[in-house]
Specification:
The structure is a homodimer of 231-residue chains.
Chain A lengths: L3 H33 L2 H31 L4 H35 L10 H21 L2 H31 L4 H33 L22
Helix pairs in contact in A: 1-2, 1-3, 1-4, 2-3, 3-6, 4-5, 4-6, 5-6
């Protein structure tokens, strides 16, 4: 039989997955709204934000309670810390979905314009990153997380391409400046979602390998630092 | 005499303040670079990023060690969790400074343009927010942190104004489209720095009041949630 503490960890994991599902759904809805100029979906994204925020808060409180409940083992401690960080990133993914929905609402007031950018393609790449980052968390597999880190470069390149061609469009066709700017900001928001997926993948690796791979520090386990002998 | 654990907490606090100093400096340098079209300062910001990233990692490892060392009291636990969250936000403030420096480098390749936006004024407001958020952390004062939350609306308004007048400039003067876009993205980056200052202020309040004020949940202390009776 699992202890109360380990049941708590299971519940924490389940809640974080629900949080991940909400954040993913928000991004998918916002991107679908972009594609279809669909104001209803925009409103769904805006209305969904408070549930995402409330879920973030619950998860943080639960992580706090688990830490306060007993002295966790090192691996459980890393897991709980990873959950609180992933939680923050998922909430910010939700914020980006709101930003995208707001841009779509702005665009919907303007004449539709043919723009040199494939937002749905970029959205598909970004959604795949979020999904895989969550899968790497579910499976506890650092290799899956590592694959997410590599996908980030692809999204960055898409963003750069979008930037160049949309600025060109703004210059050549002043009548679509605002639409092009909206699309450019949507591309930036998607890039930020990809950054959050990257953060999540790094937190999974931190938890699984007990190592800190952030900022290209390598994936070898760190020698634990002492508390008093540092500085 | 303070225990080894409490010496560790003091050291953690000192390191987070150094991290805060680095992040503040990066934003100030990037904004000064904008004002003077100063590529040297841009390079300083870009080079400073790795120190910020390394400091973030050290603080996280130290927080982990402190949590693993002994069962912290609830107030110390909240403090350590607040430190790890503030740490992430400061690192992201550093990222925004890098983004601003990159925009300035782009602008420096283009003819200088008179633009309808007061970036230095916005930068001053944002820097004040970061500084006060860190002060609220040093002093452990929720009132100071509360003031930061109120300043965020001012910055959001500045960003909206910048957005409107820069889009207008893009429409009317296609020759400065790219400069106007760069300025607009700098304004957005500053707004994001303000958002991070807000997050920091919320984390200070969470620590000091033992309450979660995020997402307008009010500042009354929460009734602690049980671990098994939630769902």
């Amino acid at each position: 039989m699992r202890s109360r503490f380990h049941q708590g960890l299971d519940e924490l994991r389940a809640r974080l997955l629900r949080m991940g599902g909400l954040a993913e759904q928000a991004v998918d809805r916002a991107c679908q709204a972009y594609k279809d100029r669909d104001l209803n979906r925009c409103h769904l994204v805006l209305e969904g934000e408070s549930l995402i925020n409330a879920t973030e808060r619950e998860i943080d409180e639960m992580a706090f309670d688990l830490l306060a409940m007993q002295q966790p083992m090192a691996v459980d401690l890393r897991f709980i810390l990873a959950v609180t960080k992933i939680n923050s990133d998922l909430e910010r993914v939700g914020d980006q979905a709101v930003n995208i929905a707001e841009r779509v609402m702005d665009m919907a007031e303007l004449p539709a314009a043919e723009l040199p950018v494939d937002i749905p393609r970029m959205a598909a790449a970004v959604s795949a990153m979020v999904r895989r980052a969550l899968e790497s968390f579910i499976e506890g597999k650092a290799e899956l997380a590592q694959a997410v880190l590599e996908m980030d470069n692809v999204v960055d390149r898409m963003r750069d391409e979008a930037f160049i061609s949309l600025v060109k469009a703004m210059n050549e066709r002043p009548d679509v400046t605002r639409q092009a700017l909206d699309a450019l900001l949507v591309a930036r928001n998607l890039e930020r979602v990809a950054d959050h997926a990257t953060n999540i993948a790094e937190d999974v690796i931190f938890w699984v390998r007990g190592a800190d791979v952030r900022h290209n520090a390598g994936i070898e386990p760190n020698v634990p630092q002492g508390v008093t002998d540092t500085n």
